[in-house]
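residues and backbone:
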Amino acid sequence: MGQGSSKDAPSSTQHVFTRYAASSRAIAPLTSLTSETPLRFSQDLLDALQASPETDSTRSKDLELHIQSRVAAELTRLSDSASTTLANLQERISAPESSDPSHPGGGFDNAAKAEGDRRRDLGRESVQREIDGLKQKLGSRKVREEVVRDESVQKARDEVVKCLRVNDRRPLDCWGEVEAFRKEIGRLEKGFLGRVLD
């Protein structure tokens, strides 16, 4: 078993195809023929095929150029279409407005436009009134002055500043002073919220 000689491989200079064989009517698969019937091409045909200037790379380059030209043409068509649409829209926008309801798309309804302007002005006025009211409320509250006038807050603040100056390379050593300052500010905040909410 397995000691029988295998078939000799055809030489590299000879072009032999054994999968299909040519019959007088058509190319038929080798199922009806023996595998010993190779199909051979003449050397003239092989030389003509090899001498052809068209290769796979030239075919792919030609296809690539064709695709690029088609894409460029489509992009030009789309660009022209978009510029035409833009020009039409600009004409419609810049055209004088007409309130004629029988002319569709001829302009905006003046009554609807006036109503929109009135609502926008009302909204603007109400927002401005609200802003002015908040400014007055904030102006009447002199919170900053309360903080400056409170002696315990000033003392705690001065202690934090003094500690930070002494420990300029180690600011975390001032945690006790910072906590005292936070407690004083918290006390002021509670008093402020009590006055505002009452």
Q: What stands out?
A: The first strand starts at residue 16 and ends at 17. Residues 20-26 have pLDDT under 50 and may be disordered. The chain has six helices and four strands. Residues 56-94 form the longest helix (39 residues).
